[in-house]
Design a protein that fits this description.
With 375 residues, the chain is mainly beta. It contains 3 helices and 20 strands. It has one domain: Sandwich (Immunoglobulin-like), CATH 2.60.40.1470.
Length: 375
């Protein structure tokens, strides 16, 4: 019965994948019973031959990629753990876990009221709790089905890529590693596979080695350990911020990227990843963003604009989530950001969703940002 339930739920997931929008919602871990088949909507033949999105039979066939394991309620997943993402549906593998501080403004705080300040909206102080996140690789076969292609856009945009500050004279230059993501512990649906190369990503075999005596049977190569040690200041997240307004949950993960000298001044760079989730069944569309950026130098900047990253995503029951990354720079070593997203309902009415305030801290100034990929 557990296997049948998992098949039915995952078959529904394939229909959402065929819509090709970031945010296919998968069943929660209750459907991922041990021994149930794990199916990937992106793999479409029993011979595991990858079909391009041009000739792929949309949402018609599922392929078994492994066997579900019981999700861990406590503890953490180890390097090499295979999983399906419970929100975006892709296949992935854990590279390593991080312990972050989750500041959830939806959870009532017993702290006393604080005076209004630029970073806090005049609300209660929020105490962070330790939470596990993971740096993961996304299967390249699944990337075409977790992208969004907006009207008039010639190329689809992937859900995530990790960016770094390039180490040369152009202080604004960035480079990206596609197919890397940050995943919360509860978003992982673990499974096992007999395939020695179950994830297709150019870094998989560089980072992981198959060892059938281990559980999971993929162990870190020295290249992964060395890469993690060298680059972890720009891979590791320390704070995660979350807040829900009218059933729209906003999660923000900021990362410090480094400092550059430009025109006899220091410019500090941060990257931030934002996930929007519609927890209701009503369809809404993001129309505008309104940011407030406070710098330790004393400046307060206001930024308004249409949509995010050039898009106005629709969040619905079938496609409830959207995730993107952006960047900000300050001429000070720290600051704060907060603001609102304006959403529109089908009847034309609007409402504002709060972006939880988050700090921009440069506590890794003693490190030198990476100049490229080193194996």
């Amino acid at each position: 019965m557990a296997t049948c339930a998992a098949r039915r739920a995952l078959a529904v997931g394939s229909r959402w994948w065929s819509r090709s929008l970031t945010g296919a919602r998968w069943p929660r871990p209750l459907c991922a019973a041990a021994g149930a088949g794990a199916f990937s909507p992106a793999a479409t033949t029993t011979t595991r031959r990858h079909l391009s999105s041009r000739n792929r039979p949309e949402g018609k066939v599922l392929e078994t990629v492994g066997v579900f394991e019981v999700p861990k309620q406590n503890g953490k997943y180890e390097t090499g753990q295979l999983f399906l993402h419970s929100i975006f549906g892709y296949r992935g593998v854990v590279l390593f876990p991080w312990q972050a501080r989750l500041y959830d403004r939806d959870v009532a705080s017993a702290a006393p009221e604080k005076a209004e300040n630029p970073a806090g909206h005049g609300s209660k102080e929020v105490k962070g709790k330790t939470h596990t996140y993971y740096q993961v690789l996304i299967d390249a076969r699944d990337c075409p089905h977790i992208v969004s292609k907006e009207r008039g856009q010639t190329e689809p945009r992937s859900t995530e890529a990790v960016t770094f500050l390039a180490n040369h004279d152009d202080s604004r230059a960035l480079y990206a590693i596609p197919g890397l993501d940050y995943v919360s512990h509860e978003d992982i649906l673990p499974y096992t596979s007999t395939d020695q190369v179950p994830i297709q990503h150019e870094l998989f075999e560089r980072f992981l080695l198959y060892d059938q005596t281990k559980a999971p049977p993929f162990v870190a190569r020295e290249t992964l350990r060395a890469w993690q040690e060298k680059n972890h200041p720009w891979l590791e997240l320390s704070d995660v911020h979350r807040e829900t307004t009218e059933n729209i949950r906003v999660t923000v993960i900021p990362f410090y990227m480094g400092m550059r000298e430009a025109q006899n001044s220091h410019v500090y760079w941060w990257r931030y990843c934002i996930r929007l989730e519609n927890l209701d069944s009503d369809v809404v569309q993001l129309r505008e963003r309104h940011w407030r950026i406070f710098s330790l130098s004393g400046t307060l900047e206001t930024v308004r604009g249409r949509g995010v990253v050039g898009r106005e995503p629709v969040l619905s029951k079938e496609q409830p989530a959207f995730q993107y990354s952006s960047h900000v720079s300050l001429q000070a070593s720290s600051g704060h950001m907060w603001g609102t997203f304006r959403f529109e309902r089908p009847d034309g009415s609007h409402f504002d969703v709060r972006i939880p305030p988050f700090s921009l801290e440069s506590n890794k100034d003693e490190k030198t940002p990476p100049s490229g990929l080193h194996w």
